Amino acid sequence: MLYRETGQFKTDYASDQQLFPIRQDRIAVFVLLAFAYLGVPLAAQTPGLAGAIDFNYWFNGVLIPFLIFALAALGLNILTGYAGLLSLGTAAFMAVGAFAAYNFELRLPGMPMLLSFILAGAVAALVGIVFGLPSLRIRGFYLAVATLAAQFFVVWALTKFSWFSNYSSSGVITAQKIVVFGYAVDTPVKRYLLVLAIVSVMALAAKNMVRGAVGRAWMAVRDMDVAAEVVGIPIMKTKLLAFAISSFYCGVAGALYAFAYLGTVEPAGFELELSFRILFMIIIGGVGSILGSFLGAAFIVLLPIFLDLSATSIERSFGFALPSGLVSNLTLIIFGALIVFFLAVEPLGLARLWQIAKEKLRLWPFPH
Amino acid sequence: MSLAFGGVVALQGVSFDVREHEIRAIIGPNGAGKSSMLNVINGVYHPQRGSVAFKGRRRRRIDPYEAAKLGIARTFQNIALFRGMSVLDNLMTGRNLKMKRNVLEQALYLGPARREELEHRKKVEAVIDFLEIQHVRRTPVGRLPYGLQKRVELGRALAAEPELLLLDEPMAGMNLEEKQDMSRFILDVNDQMGATIVLIEHDMSVVMDLSDRVVVLDYGRKIADGTPEEVRSNKAVIDAYLGVAH
Amino acid sequence: MQFFFEVLIGGLLAGVMYSLVALGFVLIYKASGVFNFAQGAMVFFAALTTVGFISMGVPFWLAAALALAAMTVLAFLTERVVLRPLVNQPQITLFMATIGLTFFIEGVAQLTWGAQVHALDLGIADEPIEWLMDHTAMNVSKFDLVASGIAAALVTVLALFFNKTRTGRALRAVADDHQAALAVGISLQRIWVIVWATAGFVALVTGLLWGARNGVQFALTFLALKALPVLVLGGFDSIAGAIVGGLIIGASEKLAEVYIGPHVGGGIESWFPYVLALAFLLVRPEGLFGERRIDRV
């Protein structure tokens, strides 16, 4: 009843190509954005609510990491989901972004912070291209080896060459305070809004790229690269572009990870496990889907919190202490099982489930 | 033209010409080297000896991307569509060489990239209308029945506005009605778009009706070359391939 | 010069350990076409289970037997829950499923036996071989030598199994072409369980040897990663390749660390094997012994 498209005819290609062709979708997205940009910050300011809900925890521990991981997942999705180039080196590119941004801020005084972030992404993109060169000769799954080389080499290099961390021991860096256009971004709300703004813009850009010529080129190379060449798609340029743009996104995510989330990072915090975590996000959320990157990130960020809360409430209501490490092991088990489950049952992940739900909603309350 | 894979000889000294705007058929028993011939023309295989002369230039090695740039498009025997994409997107990839807007402009979308997308969309819709596949334009091609997939593949080749169209068994696996539709499309393409067509086909009635001239291959060698009538009554061809009417 | 040999032999012996891990991969890849990222987790699980039983007072051989039983059960479950539902999916999907499997197995292992590091004593001392020490002043560990001997024996047994027995022939048939194997009446399910159980056995041996050397700990899981360069060099479907590849990677890693390492600050063994594998891939994408894939258009 609510989600009908009747009466919404498209009379020209321009309106057919819209991002959200269905009016209800447009309204929903508008409401979501309004809530995210206005509703949440306002709620955080109202005295009554601020007492009841720990907004700082929600900003620092949930929303900000969710957005940053979603950005990294977007980057990985572009490379692995759309272009079909398996990468296990996501964390390495994030590390490059983080350390590059730190060094730009450190060594070029007066550098606008947003520019540092963009340049950090650009540096990550260059590194991405270098480690992406093997993809021109190596296919599928062997490419994982190249990205693993990137992952291990980058972390080693950032630890060994202490120039990167300004000669601190074990490569720890403390990100500078964020100042955008002279305005200090120092409270959780402000950091949240900054991250939200950057991620929304980059998500929109990603969506545009993915439904345009370059996105089609990526998917063609993914689906059948021999045919793609025959059709006139330049394979080398397409693959390297995928690496570059994906690494740019991961680099910016890494910079935000250091500056807006953790504050202090070290190379060891960008190990293989983080790469796997982001890979899980896109598998569960949906490979080859922009929305999927967000859904997957939300899931992976929220699940451990949910398990933690459940464990605590069980402990409280039954009055005994659960074995330590139970929650973290359970998290591993559930993640592992879910990966296999999603791959077997719905390889296109939560995004596809969402699509199916929408299709059902269009018919509701009728069964078919 | 000579082509071999290790010890297996695919083509042995085959040579023929294709006139502009004509429809040239390549026929012969299975394994005669017909697909290999097409693959050489469009650069998927590189011959050990021989060269392809196209638009005034002679080349021995060409890669598929260059072939596409020169205006050669093709379809494949086993359908090489991009299964994860819709019909519309598959056809749009056919126009990739004509899209000039860079990544940043595409990321922005509004402005030049949007104009270019819409312009190419119009061209692609013309092909969709021509092939009568409007009803499936948003369907992922992996879900379409075989006959429609073959039509979509032709559409992708046509979307590139090619000068030379290579069709590898476009009618394979089709029933009579589908074959008639496909024949009509091929004739229209030749007529209206002026494309030169080289096609591999097993159905002799189709070959006789559609083609201007025919090349016959057998075991990698050319055994006949001429008009359909000449070829049909050629003894060597009858012995190797056609058989005698009883 | 003698120092060089010492490092080389040390590297070769370490390489034997890598070969063992790679062997498990090759077995599974040969028979089910799956790159089993969970092999490392299986090594960890097998070792941990053995050690867990030992700490409960169970004698060594019984503990090992119980661990083997557990690995067989795991093989059954994997075939049922992971392989069967994903039977026609592309390789990459199966690979990602085994990543999920890895985390699952780790969680279960640690949940059951705890997350501390366990020591494992196999009764072989990690000391220099006296005879060698006396005659050539080379420091080669007794333990490493015994480990290589065990690995060599294992490989021989497996090679014989594959080539001389009926089941071995069936395994090779399945590795070649699933459909054809089905057509001649070979039960894919049974074969897969056998293969995964065998890989489980290899994992157990590997786990015990590695665990005795470095302690049984979570890090064993990432052994899977060290096997990747070995497989790249040796080809994913060759037992001989796993051996040769392992030896090359082991030797080159140690030599690089000793001779190149000091110039760049050390620790290069974390990435050297991968870069080596990468360079190799650029020249010969299918490995030393692997099969060349020809794509028919």
Would you mind describing this structure in some detail?
The complex is a heterotrimer of chains A (368), B (246) and C (297). Chain A contains 15 helices and 4 strands. In chain A, the strands form 2 sheets. In chain A, strands 1-4 form a two-stranded antiparallel ribbon. The mean pLDDT of chain A is 87. Chain A is 72% helix and 2% strand. Chain A is mostly helical. Chain B has helices at residues 34-41, 64-70, 87-93, 103-108, 112-131, 146-159, 176-193, 204-210, 228-232, 235-242; strands at residues 3-5, 8-11, 23-27, 52-54, 57-59, 72-74, 164-168, 196-200, 213-218, 221-226. Chain B is globular. The two termini of chain B are 36 Å apart. Chain B is 41% helix and 17% strand. Chain C has one domain (2-283): ABC transporter involved in vitamin B12 uptake, BtuC (Orthogonal Bundle), CATH 1.10.3470. The mean pLDDT of chain C is 79. The chains are: A mainly alpha (368), B alpha/beta (246), C mainly alpha (297). Chain A binds chain B through residues 13-14, 17, 205-206, 208-209, 212-214, 216-217, 219-220, 222-224, 226-235, 241, 245, 288, and chain B through 42, 44, 63-65, 67-69, 73-74, 76, 80-85, 89, 92-94, 96-97, 99, 101, 103, 106-109, 113-114, 117-118, 121-122, 125, 156, 160.
Question: In a few lines, what is going on in this structure?
Answer:
The complex is a heterotrimer of chains A (368), B (246) and C (297). Chain B is an alpha/beta fold.
Q: Helix/strand/pairing class of chain C, anyone?
A: mainly alpha
Q: Which range does the strand content of chain B fall in?
A: 15-25%
Distance between the termini of chain C: 53 Å
Count of alpha/pi helices of chain B: 10
Mean pLDDT over all positions of chain C:
79
* Unreliable stretches of chain B: none
* Total DSSP E strands of chain C: 0
CATH architecture of chain C: Orthogonal Bundle
CATH topology of the largest domain in chain B: Rossmann fold
Number of helices of chain C: 13
CATH superfamily of the largest domain in chain B: P-loop containing nucleotide triphosphate hydrolases
Number of domains of chain C: 1
The ordered H/E elements of chain C are HHHHHHHHHHHHH
